[in-house]
Amino acid sequence: MGAGHAHPLYVHGHSRVHRMAPEAKVAAAVTFVAAVAITPRQALWAFGVDAACLAGAIIASGIGPRFVLRRLAVVLPFVAFALFIPFVASGDRVDVFGLSLSREGLWGAWNVLVKATLGASASILLAGTTEIPRLLTGASRLRVPATLTAIASFMVRYLEVIAGELGRMRTAMAARGYAPRWLWQARPIATGAGALFVRSYERGERVHAAMLARGYTGAMPDLGERRASIGEWAVAAALPTIAWLAAVTALTGVLT
Fold it and tell me: What's the pLDDT at 3?
């Protein structure tokens, strides 16, 4: 898979975040999300610190807050789920705008909302500043199993091919007058999906055989891209370090 395969979330840029080695960015994002996940829900100040640091990283990357806010639509299902928690949870009730809501449910809704938002924002920042080949390179350098990175790389590459075949099949069906309106007219769709699966499986076998013939040993070759320097690791570690300090401080306060 060549470097030209950019994904919709990637924003071309030349900021320091864009230029940073991928393994440092992947490690920083995962560590930051882990810190957010263990932060107690009552520690509002800790989430404020996390949000401020993340906002600073987004501004430094140059992708823009508006871009991140638009892509945060991915958390809407979690928000919709969280809105029901105060109504169905048990425990002490409080009146909010004339509605009787569970106090525990309100905290639960806040917990889902803030952690989903911060986690998704960190992921959007990572994806917006790192192309998919570099993401996979970073994951490989962080000792993610080679099988997983290989599956992910092929999935990204051939998803476009399979989507193109599906589009051509739909065009061919429409050209032959297929315009389903009822459930019992769905049989040709199921048949087409089965044919597409068989084609994809056979293509996978052919691609694998071709790779083995060219010396493939189960891991993609390193293209020689430079690795993260000590300075880059230090810069990347700043955000998760602050998040973990806030989380540990908040946990210590809760436990005591």
Answer: 44
